[in-house]
């Protein structure tokens, strides 16, 4: 085994200028991350100077077998924490051979919204709180839970420490450092309310980069759990009953919100979100109705509400924002399995471009 470990950790720069690029894309379900690697002749720092590539879309649910070629367009580069050295991870989106975005390519429309001059001028910032659950590989039951049984009630686990309260910290800390190594703007981690559930935060990130960074952070987490022999779940309600669900709370601000008088801009933006509540809920993740029940720190899915420091509201404004009269707000509705390209661009569209 030591030889295998030595080979995995070989430093290629000792003998060659060639590097390995791992191309990452989103499969047909909208949540399944796929990737494959290719050799490049040297270091590349601009994603648009990377070669386009293709894959078999009939094997990912994205193309028919008789016309299965889907083209990958490189969009963002990150350092590879697994191969290290000059090797890279490449976030891609997917197109037909004719250059049309395929239906599951949500990045394309998001990029159009984020390139709109009015959106660019507002410099939208995002901080996304990604909750997830670690499951035992064969049982699909949270790690640390008794087989076929339940742990003690919620209470001691949130931000907890100890072998009977914090399960999977080695995976979580490995992910934290790997994301920092990759160049992802990961801003923190914490244990969540349900045992076996954790959260990491990405941001503040500007515009389309929030989606790129969150997707690559998810990919890195999938790879680390693969190594650790556990399964990561982004299900918004992995365990039914009196247990917290998993969300992806999305913190948001624009330049106008961050400037003096920004609280009035925030209230106007929240008013727009209220008017488009149904459209946002429909795009905020699969199975979210199991999570947004009005219990366990959620608002009811059918009712829009907002409040200062209210974690039972659809949208929460922080005490600091209220006191300063400017700042940001938190959209608490997105589910843990939401597509960050969809959610971030939709918030920008509703609060900056849409006129009620």
UniProtKB/TrEMBL annotation:
UniProt enzyme class: ligase
Transmembrane segments: none
A Gene Ontology cellular-component term: cytoplasm
GO biological process: glutamine biosynthetic process
Domain GS beta-grasp, residue spans: 19-99
EC number: 6.3.1.2
Reaction catalysed by this enzyme: L-glutamate + NH4(+) + ATP = L-glutamine + ADP + phosphate + H(+)
Pfam family, one: Gln-synt_N
The organism's place on the tree of life at top rank: Eukaryota
Keyword terms of this UniProt record: ATP-binding, Ligase, Nucleotide-binding
Assembly information from the UniProt record: Homooctamer.
PANTHER family (UniProt xref): GLUTAMINE SYNTHETASE, GLUTAMINE SYNTHETASE CYTOSOLIC ISOZYME 1-3
Family recorded in the similarity comment: Belongs to the glutamine synthetase family.
Protein name according to UniProt: glutamine synthetase
Natural source organism: Populus tomentosa (Chinese white poplar)
Top-level taxonomy: Eukaryota, Viridiplantae, Streptophyta, Embryophyta, Tracheophyta
